[in-house]
Automatic annotation (TrEMBL):
It comes from the Bacteria. GO terms for biological process: aspartate family amino acid metabolic process. It comes from Tangfeifania diversioriginum. This is asparaginase. SUPFAM superfamilies: Glutaminase/Asparaginase. Residues 11-201 form the L-asparaginase N-terminal domain. Pfam families: Asparaginase, Asparaginase_C. Substrate binds at residues 64, 95-96.
Amino acid sequence: MTNSEEKETSILIIYTGGTIGMVQHPHSGTLAPFKFDQIKKEIPELNKFNYNIETVTFTPPLDSSNMSPRNWVKIARIIQKNYNRFNGFVVLHGTDTMAYTASALSYMFENLDKPIIFTGSQLPIGTLRTDGKENLITSVEIAAARKNGMSLVPEVCIYFDFKLYRGNRAVKRDADLFSAFRSVNYPELAVAGVDIRFRTEFIHCNENKGILKVNTQFDDNVVILKIFPGINQQVFNSVFNIPGLKGVVLETFGSGNVPTSRWLINCIKKAIRRNIILLNVTQCEGGRVSMGQYETSLDLIKAGVVSGHDMTTEAAITKLMFLLGQELPVTEIKMRLNKSLRGEISE
């Protein structure tokens, strides 16, 4: 980035809640959110950037366990409202559901040409050993990174513990380690060390240069059903007969396999005949669904189950909710589920 670009760079930080925004009260020792309108005072290291940094704070801040599609829309609307004023956006978010929110935002923004970087921390930013300062400072630097006037990472991403991931490819892998996130099926977009090394060959760029569109409709009449040894017909029938149900993400064994019990396959067939959409993803951390590779998944193809390929569960369920929200015909939804919208599937 040139000096002139640096001087005119503006970054918006959106604090939704989460551990990263907590500081310890000097007298009581309790943790409470710090005042984000004084962020440069709380984190003086940010003053070394010659950026205009502004903040927006959720009131009250949300524990990420309470995040919902309504809150995803709120974040998107804040970004949309400020899109022309800022060069990049940093969203501070609790780690528990960060991968869901990042996946949802990736689908909502069409023709995105600026970075939306999600980050958080495992320890409050006000504690001595916090990982929050590095995560925040580097996220701001990545959000500001430009070359020839163009953002280097025009994607929805997650930055954590020195690594930048595509948002709809990352999953939370550990509740205790600083390396809380991982992307098994897609490489890191950048690695931060002495310098930030951007892996441009893996970064999606908006080649169409179309006008930004923000689609905010979601349909939450969906469920995730994890297949396990001993799952019985009563459980299966109960799930598939939920009133108003429109879609099911099946977490299956290995490359997309389920037990070959006739009642199970018949239940799936009946659901599909009622226009309930079934999307098949693997329970494994890595790899992909390849239905038909084994006899135990052949019946799923015949029944009309859609392959989720190598999507994460977080990317799959938010994509299903997003496409259902667009009120498209079932055949169109199935076609789009089977293709990559924002780099969530390897093609």
